[in-house]
Amino acid sequence: MVGAGRNPFVRQRLCPFDSSLLEIVKLTRMTIALKSTLACCLLAILASAAAAGEPYPADPAMPAYELPDPLKANDGTTVATAEQWKDKRRGEVLELFRKHVYGRVPATKYEQTFHVVHEDPQALGGRATLRQVEVRITRDGKTLPIRVNLFTPNERQQPAPAFLLICNRGPENIDATRQTKSPFWPVEEGIARGYAMAAFLNSDVDPDKHDEFKDGIHGMIDQGARHADSWGTIAAWAWGASRVLDYLRTVPEINPDQVAVIGHSRGGKTALWAAAEDERFALAVSNDSGCGGAALSRRRFDGREQVKRIVTSFPHWFCANFKDYSDREDELPIDQHELIALIAPRAVAVGSASEDRWADPRGEFLSVVHAAPVYALLGHKGLGTTEMPAIGDAIHGDRAHYHIRPGKHNLIVEDWNHYWDFADRVFGRTSQPQPTK
Ligand code: GTR
Fold first, then answer.
1. I need a labelling partner for 361 at 20 to 30 A (CA). Which of 253, 331, 348, 386 fits?
2. pTM for this one?
3. 139 phi and psi angles, rounded to 5 deg
4. Residues with beta carbon inside 6 Å of ligand 1?
């Protein structure tokens, strides 16, 4: 375990700000009028603390915690070389996440084919080629189509890097006709920066509802009784992202070694797990992914999503074993910084929103911080700092990025701009934004 004493980030204390809040709470009992006045003041304080340039507010009180050391192998030995990480420890950590958090993909055989159902070489006023493709998974006479919208930039000297969005919102967010231009998938801006833009709906792979794993890919390739480590829906979506990657790697206009997987919220949890399971993803982008994503599970404070809540609200997302850690996060053999470590030495980008306490922005930041020993072992500095940036700022480190945008839980162009800036560095390119019209 990483000792709390040795690690300045691990031990959490009640800060003066929180003590004064307690005082405020006592005072508010005095009179109703005073109560409402103070409540207004408090709201004003919180609102100003969420402004660009301000530090992210201090942590609320929470129990002290210790994080598992990613470099301590299951047999208690210390992992001291890159080879030991790659040959031994990485596999152990991956197995721990399969067993306790996301579940295992079944070994069932299936067929996979790619079908271009629509192509427009002059999309976006000639700037891009649009392909609408079905990745068809077939087994026992049943077919599951994963529908992919792909724009590749027409102006390019070489195969383009690509961003694959796992879309956890409605189809209008990834509109191929571009009649609806959602900031969730800003195709025009991505193409202007030289990136291929691909997207699919997570619901094509597995509908986001608890139906005892009857529909979607579960209904097609699960066999026999479920086990405590059988895959959940996040693992199914991640698997779907890999099937789309299978297709993207066949597209001549795309550089197969420069494909990023990106997702927001439940999609962000999925993007991290997809990149952990599939080392062909060069970059994983997790936007506001929170509990079960980038946020450390052991940071248990009121006002953020914790294991008990997430496995109750979304019983289908994780494997059954994860439920055992409700209110027992300290007993997890891993924590989410090790999910980030599984992506090393590839690149990882984590974004938060300042008003998204439910996702625990600081917990998301600290996961990237605590993955640094693994990045270091593999020759990279990671974030290169342990200081959380001010609201509105971004850290573009060595294979690791973090930013905290002012505002609410969402994926918007401001987030994408940070991710493209970071991807430019990772892929060694300078993509100057071009006018989109
Ligand atoms: C919330 C859930 C989060 C996050 C979010 C989303 O209801 O508590 O874990 O995944 O949904 O996906 O938008």
1. 331
2. 0.89
3. -155, 135
4. 168, 265-266, 290-291, 305, 310, 313
